[in-house]
Design goal:
By secondary structure, the chain is mainly beta. It has 2 helices and 11 strands, in the order H-E-E-E-E-E-E-E-E-H-E-E-E.
Length: about 170
């Protein structure tokens, strides 16, 4: 009986659908801040769209990519530092934007897309330094095959997405 129970449990585990998770992290780093999108799951994400939306952040965060415009002091344009091959095109970011879209062709298990950029707050604090609590409430969403999932950044500057089943 014990062997049959073990066999049944093993078959159930092996036949369960696999999920690909994406962990998004924000790292404050003067003069460049960094966003990393890490596929921590077992499946390749294909034909997917990741949207980073800072509009719900506690401090009204924006991208500061030019010397003129809404940002303060130091600016940094978007610079892709990992995962360029995973993208179908480079995203366009204008100074003062609070949204950014990444179009993914294929992002395999344990692969990352990362970029640096300057993020400023507009709430009147230390505008050039963004803490984890200031990004809290910003969201990231992932769309794969007409299925979307969304997560908010926590005070530790991370958001975790669970993707649809993959085969």
């Amino acid at each position: 009986m014990t062997q049959k129970l073990f066999l049944a449990a093993t078959v159930l585990i092996l036949s369960s659908p696999a999920f690909a998770d994406v962990v998004v992290s924000f790292d404050e780093g003067a003069p460049k801040d960094r966003f990393t999108f890490h596929n921590t799951g077992a499946c390749t994400l294909t034909s997917a769209t990741l949207e980073l939306d800072l509009s719900g952040s506690a401090s009204g965060l924006i991208f500061d990519v030019t010397s003129t415009g809404a940002g303060v002091e130091v600016f940094q344009p978007l610079e892709l530092v990992a995962g360029k091959a995973a993208l179908t095109m480079l995203p366009t970011v204008k100074d003062g934007d609070n949204k950014l879209v990444l179009n993914i062709g294929a992002l395999g298990p344990d692969e990352r897309i990362a970029f640096t950029i300057d993020v400023d707050d507009t709430a009147g604090g230390r505008e050039i330094i963004v803490s984890g609590s200031e990004i809290e409430g910003a969201t990231v969403s992932l769309t794969v095959e007409n299925t979307s999932t969304r997560a908010s950044f926590s005070s530790n500057a991370e958001a975790s997405l669970i993707t649809p089943e993959c085969s």
